[in-house]
Write a structure and sequence with these properties.
Layout: E1 18-20, E2 23-27, H1 30-41, H2 46-60, E3 70-77, E4 80-86, H3 96-101, H4 120-131, H5 136-139, H6 141-149, E5 151-152, H7 155-171, H8 178-184, E6 196-197, H9 200-212, H10 215-219, H11 221-232, H12 239-243, E7 248-250, E8 253-257, E9 260-264, H13 271-281, H14 292-312, H15 323-326, H16 329-336, E10 356-363, E11 368-374, E12 384-385, E13 390-391, E14 422-426, E15 429-437, H17 442-454, H18 460-465, E16 469-473, E17 476-479, H19 485-493, E18 497-500, E19 509-515, E20 522-525, E21 533-536
Parallel strand pairs: 17-18
Antiparallel strand pairs: 1-20, 2-10, 2-21, 3-4, 3-11, 4-7, 5-6, 8-9, 9-14, 10-11, 12-13, 14-15, 15-19, 16-17, 19-20
Protein name: Gamma-glutamyltransferase
InterPro entries: GGT-like_enzyme, GGT_ssub_C, Ntn_hydrolases_N
Organism: Paenibacillus bovis
């Protein structure tokens, strides 16, 4: 178990971690957290609760994820970790040449071109088949009910929904986007905070997925509807791409950080970046969190890890260097040696050749789940399949059209993926799931939260509440409004270009659940930067 003072809380919110014994669900939306807890109380396990919460989030937080997105999970059950990669590939008919022939110099952000095969529905079914206790039809019922009967818009959700509506109103003018506005702005505007919103098409789709075990989505009526809309508007995705998709069970990868094993999903996920940064940082001794030296070394380690990750990470069997080479102690030492007293301009090294929701669940049986799913960039591609509520992801936007780049676009290839679940163990025993969603902030959030708990002895809630920073590019570091000014000034004198953000919106949203191995008590922290909630009993 992690060692910390449960009452210590040096940051302004003064919220404390939540304690419970029988079960816990932590996520960014209270209704979804409660839906997961209801499944636990009905006899479901942590895996069932994770599926219920994830499905519910596609309804009650559509600004961050949807049925047409991808998903990843790390599951502790039966005394070991299991990884699930439900990252859908590019369509078989797409290519660099085809995209360029359509007049694009890079893959567009919106429309059908960046749409890849959605993996989330298959993830729910795979998790249910392998580890669930309740039928998928029962587990998805809370999400179906919210979609059918409606729910009131929460504050953070309403804020981001309004921003997305304004942006989409300005830039999405084609007929292919009409269904997005019909679904998410039925009154000609975004729903306001406190208003009820419902989506009957969304409910019907979830019911179909529940009754057919996701078969309708990949090989049935829903697949036909997706294919027809893609064909009508020049998309590359076809029903054959959907039918060919199967999630992959994988072995999570890890580094040992001060006696704790930190686990991530292997590439094409960017969790490798968090592990590379921690591997560099474990060569230093840190005693205090809020010092110039601590932040300087964290900045430099993240910059070095990201420069490698952005160059090398893609579908694992297509990487020009293997993950174990990037995680070797020898390579970490070489990268660590580059860190001096001034901010560096990050460059990739030469190792040996070779818009998102996060949730955590735990139950009284010892099962724990770290789960994440996303449409990417909020609502995703702007494409919604008419009458279904299926908002399609734009994950293909991450591909490169440079034929020499490791992450170049290829038919059937999985792109560099930003969404990453994390997990901690010690001496082959589970400590618990953690995650921080938010695009390229995610590995940076993982590093900061892990160090907050392990190096600086902060309890889960304090570890999440602590002021965050994020590397943007070159020597540019953005810090939250609450970041100490004296540290920012000192770091600027070391060559860091510090920018103070106006809000906390871009610094990720995290959840943590830990288990005390002696008592079985669960300790949870949730995010103050959103409508975060922990449901427990």
């Amino acid at each position: 178990m992690l060692s910390y003072d449960p009452l210590s809380h040096p940051y302004p919110s003064q919220r404390h971690s939540v304690y419970a014994r029988n079960g816990m669900v932590a996520t960014s939306q209270p209704l979804a957290a409660q839906a997961g807890l209801d499944i636990l109380r009905k006899g479901g396990n942590a895996i069932d609760a994770a599926i219920a919460t994830a499905a519910c989030l596609t309804v009650v937080e559509p600004t961050s994820n949807g049925i047409g997105g991808d998903a990843f999970a790390i599951v502790w059950t039966k005394d070991r970790l299991h990884g699930l990669n439900a990252n859908g590939p590019a369509p078989a008919s797409i290519s660099i040449e085809a995209v360029q022939a359509a007049g694009h110099e890079k893959i567009p952000t919106y429309g059908w071109t960046p749409v890849t095969v959605p993996g989330a529905p298959a993830a729910w079914q795979s998790l249910s088949d392998r580890f669930g206790k309740l039928p998928l039809s029962e587990v998805l019922q809370p999400a179906i009910d919210y979609a059918e009967q409606g729910f009131p818009i929460s504050p953070t959700l309403g804020h981001y929904w309004q921003l997305a509506y304004r942006r989409f109103s300005d830039i999405l003018s084609g007929e292919e986007y009409r269904s997005w506005f019909d679904t998410f702005a039925p009154d000609g505007r975004a729903p306001r905070i406190g208003e009820m919103w419902r989506s009957p098409g969304h409910a019907a789709t979830l019911r179909s997925i529940a009754e057919t075990g996701a078969e309708s989505f990949y090989r049935g009526e829903l697949a036909e509807q997706i294919d027809a809309h893609s064909s009508q508007y020049g998309g590359f995705l076809r029903k054959e791409d959907l039918a060919a998709f199967t999630p992959e069970w994988v072995d999570p990868i890890s580094v040992n950080y001060r006696g704790y094993d930190v686990w991530e999903i292997p590439p094409a996920g960017q969790g490798l970046i968090a592990l590379m940064a921690l591997n560099i940082l474990k060569g230093y001794d840190f005693t205090d969190r809020d010092t110039v030296d601590t932040h300087h070394k964290q900045f430099e380690a993240i910059k070095l890890a990201f420069s490698d990750g952005l160059k090398y990470i893609t579908q694992e069997d297509k990487m020009t260097t293997r993950a174990e080479h990037l995680l070797s102690d020898t390579y970490a030492a070489a990268r660590r040696a580059l860190i001096g007293d001034e901010a560096l301009e990050p460059q990739p090294g030469q190792p040996q050749a070779g818009g998102t929701v996060y949730l955590a669940t735990a139950d009284s049986e010892g099962n724990m789940v770290s789960y994440i799913q996303s449409n990417y960039m909020g609502f995703g591609s702007g494409i919604v399949i008419p009458g279904t509520g299926i908002a399609m992801q734009n994950r293909g936007h991450s591909f490169s059209l440079d034929p020499a780049h490791d992450n170049r676009l290829e038919p059937g290839k999985k792109t560099y993926h930003t969404i990453i679940p994390g997990f901690l163990t010690k001496d082959s025993k589970p400590i618990g799931p953690f995650g921080v969603m938010g695009g390229f902030m995610q590995p940076q959030g993982h590093v900061q939260v892990v160090m907050n708990m392990i190096d600086f002895k902060l309890n889960p809630q304090a570890a999440l509440d602590a002021p965050r920073w994020q590397w943007l590019e070159d020597k540019v570091i953005e810090v939250e409004p609450g970041f100490p000014d004296h540290l920012a000034q000192s770091l600027m004198r070391m060559g860091h270009q510090i920018r103070r953000a106006n809000s906390t919106g871009s610094f990720g949203r995290g959840q943590i659940i830990l288990r005390d191995e002696h008592t079985g008590v669960l300790i949870g922290g949730t995010e103050m930067r959103t409508d975060g909630a922990i449901a427990s009993w």
